[in-house]
Batch of 2 targets.
Target 1
Amino acid sequence: MPPLTYANYLDLEKLLTLQRPRSSPAEHDEMLFIVIHQTYELWFKQLLHEFEKVKRDFSAGDLFGAIHSFKRTRTIMKTLVGQIDILETMTPSSFSSFRDRLDTASGFQSVQFRELEFLLGYKRSSALAHVKPEFPGADRLQRRITERTVIDHFYDFLATRGATIPEELKNRDVTQPNGPDERVQQEILRLYKSSPDVSILFELMTDFDEGLQEWRYRHIKLVERTIGAKYGTGGSPGVPFLKESLFKPIFHDLWAVRHEM
Ligand code: HEM
């Protein structure tokens, strides 16, 4: 057995052959476009890994475990937002020079991004239309639809802190998105006032949520400055379509109580 090295532990030889620009003659910026997207997918993978742990922490009533993970996920989110700056160094004409090579490939088809939305509680069946059954990971996405979300596990956590969670929320149809609930908001408000340690968690969750909305906003601006009013390669009207999910929070109940504090 050869000794473990930096390169073979990380499987670098494989990793570094995975960037394969398609433009010919080669367009300089296509490499950046590929590296950025692959980096995003790796971070999506890490976020999915963290939120699986968060679900377990929540149901076990492990406040500090959840705090620790939310600190990490909101920091990853900041990195995801920051990376857009790098891609914005690519001009519209530079992108146009290889855009045709993308054919109908689009972020629409990112299975992991959808998994993340579904795992968090933002389940939208319309998104499934862009993920064909033969896509790698399509089965994982299907499974996520039938799984309890981070918010469902958050209800478990609130219950461990004495909150009364309505039966209809405990037994809700988990294939549907989580929505706001005034009774949950009252419990959150009570905990904000009575439990400073739990309020740290609530703030970190809000940070993450704000980060995701910030990413959506920055992605739209990136799209707008790079392709303007063009349709997306995935076939959507582009910017107007993306604006539909702008400012939509994941953790509705945490946003809904802020004026009452
Ligand atoms: C030049 C850069 C980019 C352009 C022009 C662009 C353009 C678009 C457009 C037009 C859409 C709407 C769907 C469609 O019709 O194709 C879209 C969706 C999407 N893009 Fe990008 N994008 C860019 C970079 C990125 C990057 C770096 C990521 C990181 C993973 C990303 C992830 C996504 C995701 C996840 C969606 C689906 C969003 C949703 O359904 O809410 N995009 N993109």
Note: The pocket of protoporphyrin IX containing FE is lined by residues 36-37, 40, 87, 95, 106-108, 110, 113, 219, 222-223, 226-227, 232-236, 238, 241-242, 245 (CB under 6 Å).
Target 2
Amino acid sequence: MSTSNWARNLTYSSSRVVRPTTLDELAETVTSSPRVRPLGTRHSFNRVADTDGVHVVVDALDDGRPAVEVDVARGTASIAAGARYGEASQALQEQGVALGAMASLPHISVAGAVATATHGSGDTTRNLAAAVRGLELVTADGAVRTLARGDTDFAGAVVGLGALGIVTRLELDVVPTYDVRQDVYLGLGWDVVAEQLDEITASATSVSLFTGWGDGVDQVWRKTAVRPGSDAVAFPAAYLGAAAATRAMHPLPGVDAAACTEQLGVAGPWNERLPHFRLAFTPSNGEELQSEYLVPRRHAVEAMAALRKIADVVRPLLQITEIRTIAADDLWMSTAFVEGVAAGEQPDPRAGFVGFHFTWLPRQREVEAVLPAIESALAPFGARPHWGKLFTDGPAELADVAGRYPRFADFAALVERYDPAGRFRGGIVDTLLAGA
Ligand SMILES: Cc1cc2nc3c(=O)[nH]c(=O)nc-3n(C[C@H](O)[C@H](O)[C@H](O)COP(=O)(O)OP(=O)(O)OC[C@H]3O[C@@H](n4cnc5c(N)ncnc54)[C@H](O)[C@@H]3O)c2cc1C
């Protein structure tokens, strides 16, 4: 039976999906399949996870260890790769620890999110992959390999796009648990956003600006960590002309907020506030497509102006745009990679990125026809498309994208070393590496 992704905009080319329950079964599947590729919860919108061989999903894998194992003394948690962030974060919370970041949706698998550099928001918040301290993966020869932060191959392997092997476990940095309050503000003019962007994004732990590219930003979602002794930075709403929302909001105009995490300043556990959507709900039943481009932070205002110029082209297909900031990291294929950044260092917001995310109506052909306009508008800023979302992914465009990653040649060499026969190649990763 053919398998489609979450958004149902693509049917994978794989002949079958295998869900191994033991490491031996996983190794046997890998070594007996000339083409094989890991698949997570299928939330990517493009062919990043595709293969014409066998798909392997590790959500039923039992390696003899609990799905979530916390080591408080080391500040780490070992997590089964197939776990979804929602359940993993709940288990962490129950054990008194927390992650620094989560994506908007808690339903995605940890390994799939890490493999594509999935991110949340925040001037000093790195993407989810940057929390990885170690990983275990089954490589092309069926052997289990362990990599730890600081090892030679590590920074190339974490955002691996599924090309190096099947990740079975990830060790993540954790911190003592904390609460977060979420407040939504309405109506910020473009002039204020352009003049005060740095103040706005610095005003909370995580800030998202939602816009339909009309008169300005329609909603500002601020998530503030409430730690003992740390005061929330006040949002100068009156000064900026924005009004505090008096009821819970959904990012899409007019949509009921029942699927959204609690707002109106009610503090609660980090894992129930950092995602925009609750684990118990599917926000839109897959009736959407997404694209996103990350631009170095120093170009944020210019890039926003360039996008406003093509608003009339974008708007007819758009549900909503979300603008977020992401701190820089050292992972070679991360959309937020910056040469010279060190893993443990306190991130410098000025060195980070701004993400322009587009939630589209589910009209793929029309959306794909609009993407080149966005890509041309953002090309002068060296925009990097999100690996899991729709972008123009022909050979020439992927060669351009590869050129925006200073360590791409090293990544291609790493893949060649781990997988000389190209067992794990497939989909857009095949095209990307073919140009190396
Ligand atoms: C509604 C919605 C909301 C989203 N919100 C955000 C957001 O807030 N921020 C953001 O950045 N992105 C967001 N995304 C994008 C999403 O996070 C990525 O597409 C992510 O890759 C999805 O994880 P997955 O488990 O579904 O991976 P899949 O789509 O199944 O696979 C993605 C990649 O991961 C690889 N992979 C999967 N499992 C493994 C494994 N065990 N070992 C090695 N490689 C593996 C695959 O080979 C493939 O290359 C959202 C997507 C949706 C549908």
Note: The domain at 179-397 is CATH 3.30.70.2520 (Alpha-Beta Plaits).
